[in-house]
TrEMBL record:
Species this chain originates from: Salvator merianae
Protein name from the UniProt record: protein-tyrosine-phosphatase
A molecular-function term among this protein's GO annotations: protein tyrosine phosphatase activity
Gene Ontology CC: membrane; receptor complex
Pfam families found in the cross-reference section: Y_phosphatase
Reaction(s) the record says it catalyses: O-phospho-L-tyrosyl-[protein] + H2O = L-tyrosyl-[protein] + phosphate
Transmembrane segments: 13-41
Entry keywords, A to Z: Glycoprotein, Hydrolase, Membrane, Protein phosphatase, Signal, Transmembrane, Transmembrane helix
Enzyme kind, highest EC tier: hydrolase
Species lineage: Eukaryota, Metazoa, Chordata, Craniata, Vertebrata
EC number(s) on file: 3.1.3.48
Amino acid sequence: MTKQSARTSSVPFLLYLLGIIIGPFIAGCLLLIILVLLIFYYRRKREECFSYFGLQMGKCPCFTELIFFAFFLSFLASEKQQLQDTGTGQSQSEAQRPENQAKNRYRNVLPYDHARVQLTFRPTDPSSDYINASYMPGYEKEKEFIAAQGPLPGTLCDFWRLIWEQKITTLVMLTNCIENGQRKSERYWPLDYTPCTYGDITVSVVTETILPDWTIRDFSIKRVTNLSDLVHLIRHYHYTSWPDHGVPHVTSTILHFRDIVREHIEQHKNSGPALIHCSAGVGRTGTFIALDSLLRQACVQGEIGVFSFVQRLRMNRPLMIQTESQYVFLHQCLLDGIRPAPLKNWDKMEDSAVYENTLALQGYEVSHV
């Protein structure tokens, strides 16, 4: 064999040896990268679990609980994704009319024609029957609630027309007027006990009780054009601790808030729908409506259908329960509402908040029978 042929034949052998050496090295690097990614994923899910379930860092559940939470969150994220297109494609022609566009707070939150609440038509104003509000199903009735956006400066009169015409006695507000420096809802009630007139409706504040997480007001309203002394009374429940696009830090306060709202609704069953609004009338509003309806279903039937009920909501109004965190929070509220967990160290602050609200509320109930 010549020297040239020997060198030629040795090249594949050297490549073979090089492959034996480099191959395991590359495989090891890939395994290391995968391991790092898994650790990162685990830590992120761990933080999400603490964030979603209100646990303090340092008071960690066991590893199997965290794994369960991680799979639980992934499952809910998958469900939420399946809801994305529910209801889309339905007609929104009334909301899209040029004369009505200024009445919408957000361009992507428009009521569907079939579910929109129509105000009394006024011949002098072709767009007088439009307001960004939708009838919503509850546990008992298809029009148990009205979901609405927070009023704009130009829709304050329409908002009070809605309340008067629909005979509403329960009004729930789930947003602050200003959040993070942005206007989320126009203030639609008087600053003090001096009556204000919106269009042809005069609104008076009868009582106001400020609690740690919500405020309760009683309004009386009457029509200026009405020759009779007919006065309509409304209870205004204003929850002030729910961040926009987010969720409250604990479930107990919103569960307690829901209970007192439900009690008032039950006391006024012959009235119109309960009016629920936040800023857009979809995220916090949808979560609250679903929470109330599903807790009632659990109480009566002993079972709940979260996914199917949210589908029903989204068939009536787009984007109901807007974010994944709100969808997860709804489930956690239902778990805590149906089967309250025993008090643990990380629940003490939460329990204290409920206690403060309860004491204040007892004083309110005694003085406002």
